[in-house]
Amino acid sequence: MDDAARTFLDDLLSTHSPSGFESRGQRVWLDAVTPVADSVWTDAYGNAVAAVEGTGDGPRLAFTGHVDEIGFIVRDVTDDGFLRIGPIGGADRTVSKGQHVTVHADGGDRTVPGVVGQAAIHLRDQGSEEYEDLEAQFVDVGADGEAEARSLVEVGDPVTFSSGVRDLHGTRLAGRGIDNRVGVWVAAEALRRVAESPVEATVYAVSTVQEEVGLQGARMVGYDLDPDAVVALDVTHATDTPAVSGQHEGPVALGGGPVISRGSTNHPVLVDLLRETAAATGVDVQLQATGSRTGTDADAFYTSRAGVPSVNVGIPNRYMHTPVEVVDTDDLDAAVTLLIEVAAAVGTDDDFAVEL
User: Is the pTM above the cut of 0.90?
Assistant: First the structure.
């Protein structure tokens, strides 16, 4: 990963972008793709698309990720000036207490620092502790009473963890919001590389909104764009830590390469294309079984209109939906390489139809 690509990744990861409040994250993404794209557009809810036109009559390929992250939302202010919160997406109540957070006030133009309160261990009954629901947790912004708190924040303001990007050993990095800023990074980087060496296919990079609250952005842009095929980039669970038994997830290793999903949503012709391309170009990939659904934007794209051939490609991710998600940048680079090789491999005769 060169310095420019890493700066782009860091900019994405340091920009808070909770579901329903993604405009700042989308702005970072658009600033990166606009110089290399033939055209760029957005829709009413902020989904963003950048296109590089093909050199021939090849298919229209969409490489997609979602820019939103989980978080919290202010739902009430107490008489004492504390903020009651609720979840945005799949926020984890077991990791929120005792964390630094940021309230994004005035439409995100102003930030208010806070902490999620946690009673000291000395003051808790030992042996009978339970994780409180988010609705029972609270944010302390340092306000002295309700009036002062309401002068700082409003009901409906989004809240995110305050943790930033941190390099671990080697090519590993940690941070919040890796799910799924790495997906939109891969899509954008693949588009940039295709723009440098045009292919027959027209390639779209897509950054969707509101995936964490029901794949909503993908439903919108999938209908509007109507591509011939979609590769949805998202994170998937790395199972190579002591915290995961492997009972519910197949073996996925950090640094083992992007993960191709098989089953349900994932179109078999696209699965074969990805696997064959990876083998031909020396890109290491892993396989994952998704017998019912992928839980990603691919589930929305593949039922758009009359059905769009779609496949999910995962980036191995440790500790998903926590403030300390961990990925390996080698997996990101490999995913980019795989996508640009796929774009180069398809031509006019490829229609991705299942043979019966």
Answer: yes
